[in-house]
Write a structure and sequence with these properties.
This protein is an alpha+beta fold. It has helices at 11-23, 26-33, 37-51, 67-87, 104-121, 173-178, 208-213, 230-238, 252-256, 285-296, and strands spanning 56-59, 62-65, 96-102, 125-133, 138-139, 145-150, 158-163, 168-172, 244-246, 260-262, 273-278. Strand 4 and strand 5 (138-139) form a beta hairpin. Helix 1 (11-23) crosses helix 2 (26-33) and helix 1 (11-23) crosses helix 4 (67-87).
Length: 299
Amino acid sequence: MINQFNRIPPLHLLIAFEAIARHSSFARASEELALTPSAISHRIKNLEELWGIELFNRTGNQLRLTTAGARYLREVKESLNSLNTLARPEFKAKKTRLRIATPPTFGRQHLLPKLSEFTRLHPEIDIELHIQIPLMDVNAEEVDIEIRFGDGNYPGFEVTTLIAEPCVPACSRNYFQKIGGSSIFNPIQKPRDLKDLVLLRSPLEPWKPWFDAADLDWKEPDVGPQFNDLGLLIEAVVADMGVGLVRPRMVRSLMGTGQIIKLIDIESASPHNYYIVKNPNKQFPEIQSFVNWLTLQQW
């Protein structure tokens, strides 16, 4: 009697294919699956030989699915999701709760848009998101893992840097035009040209480190609009209120549409960054799964 399942590909080949397609990268997929790049490349070669089709187009540093590969990916995702549920049928009845604390701006603008990917990869985990006040490290209630915005000095906790990005002065297009800027002229030719502009202030993003990087012997501004939330600071920049310190990666969509314009190329390291903070007494698999996923993202 012929085995009706004799053409089912080995599961490890399908898992490798899904990971590579999701990341568009052999290297990132190998990190996620804890494999060497050569091992994961060999698995895709085996899968392609098994079906007699090419799954990816490789052009330079770019990796894209072929038409057949894209069609096959849809089928593989459905099959893996079904197998995942079959392997742990109790997930349908009971899930593990993961309580996460995040600063409001990071949570709203950067974490939430990506969080559906994590829940798709881990349907056994229910997410519970809490807001944390930056620098104060205050949570509404007990959580399992935190994303903190601060100096990284958290005694008694396991700390991993998530995002450390320099700051640059920026303003809105309207404000840029108001100070005499145009598509062919930037009125801010040197750091001292900021002297008569409105500098938007925030204890989360102080100006003094940037002044030092720009060789300006200026003190931290004590006048002008002040914001205790990075999201509000960015919105104030967009609303033509003045010049604020922003992190290019964190506002790349606004820069891409021209709503925010970088005034000068000088960057400064911020005293505050984003960190993953874990309680060493909480060593649960759902926490480690979330940490692994966080560190693989391109923020």
